[in-house]
Amino acid sequence: MKIINVRARVFEWKGHTVPPQPHFCSNAMDLLWDKGDSMGTFRFHGWTVVEVETDDGLVGIGNVALAPRIAKAIIDQYLAPLVLGHDPFDYEYLWQRMYRSTHAWGRKGVAMAAISAIDIALWDLMGKATGRPVFKLLGGRTKEKIPCYASKLYRTDLGEMQAEAQRYLDQGFTAMKMRFGYGPKDGPEGMRKNLDSVAAVREVIGPDVDLMLECYMGWNLEYAKRMLPKLEKFEPRWLEEPVLADDIDGYAELNRLTSIPISGGEHEFTSHGFRQLLDKRAVSVIQYDTNRVGGITAAHKINALAEVYGVPVIPHAGQMHNYHLTMSTLASPMSEYFPVHEVEVGNELFYYIFEGDPTPENGFIDLDEHKPGLGLTLSQRYLDQFNIVE
Ligand SMILES: O=C(O)[C@H](O)[C@H](O)[C@@H](O)CO
Ligand SMILES: [Mg+2]
């Protein structure tokens, strides 16, 4: 089997968008004096879809959501020529080819995200060629179903957040993640508002439901050190990305500070990046996203590392490219799940582009044993709502 074509297209959402409100979610821009459009850093309103075609008529589908037009250019100009003419089953060789030949300027960020998209498509192809779901090629079923946590609860009116939390309980979720709206620049009042929002959600969900707290890199070390002891009484399952992804020592310090586990990794790349996090005991929960970290080939290696370090892997975002890895390793106890919603930050866009992502029932998703590959197809339903860049 040989790869005969690589097609990368950018799907840019032009349909209705719910504008996020101020203080909707803390983020890395919050520390600057001129925040401008501070929500811009986590608006993912475009997605690159990669289709890799083989000479026996199979098409593998990969995707990447970071800097989609740049990811497409990297795929078109650099990566496609490296895989054309090769057998997708030589995935490790092809991964090394892409990684090594872009090493001077790649390694992390959008170049690795672009490599991820091709790698995901190769695994989809291998599944389709063997007639097996991808998780069966990675180790198979390690759990009956995958427990999911509902991930939204952006900072809005506290009554609205409580009603939203109640909805997740009613749907059967036993874990959920909320976002902080305030950081260092918002002073004692912002600190109190942060604590009030956690108290409000905890009040509704009670002590036995897992509550995860997301900072999205909108704090700094000093602020995080002040907040963590105050948050202990709410017994969060974890506190996520308190500081910039590059501050690995900061993560390690915070992880030692209180009983609250610190999580991170959605902005880290390859097994090399994760070895550093693990060696320094910087995170107690690993949250790679397969469509950034280096694809299924890299994520599978990180799962093995995490297993020996005894650190759980709960990938960013859920979605099929992550679910197959979660299903096939004991190191991964749970998945994130973005409730389907009108397009807002853009996390939801996956459901508008693809068909086949499972919907949780009672807080669990399952993967179909009989669907070869990842189990995704391109959706025709919303095509007119996208500007598609060929
Ligand atoms: O962990 C997450 O779900 C991410 O940090 C979100 O994708 C991001 O959009 C912030 O809400
Ligand atoms: Mg996050």
TrEMBL record:
Keywords from the UniProt entry: Lyase, Magnesium, Metal-binding
Record's keyword annotation contains Magnesium: yes
Necessary cofactors: Mg(2+)
EC annotation from Swiss-Prot or TrEMBL: 4.2.1.90
A GO BP entry: carbohydrate catabolic process
GO MF term (any one): magnesium ion binding
Annotated SMART domains: MR_MLE (SM00922)
Matching Gene3D superfamilies: Enolase-like C-terminal domain, Enolase-like, N-terminal domain
Similarity field: Belongs to the mandelate racemase/muconate lactonizing enzyme family. RhamD subfamily.
Subunit structure: Homooctamer; tetramer of dimers.
Protein's name according to its UniProt entry: L-rhamnonate dehydratase
Organism: Zobellella endophytica
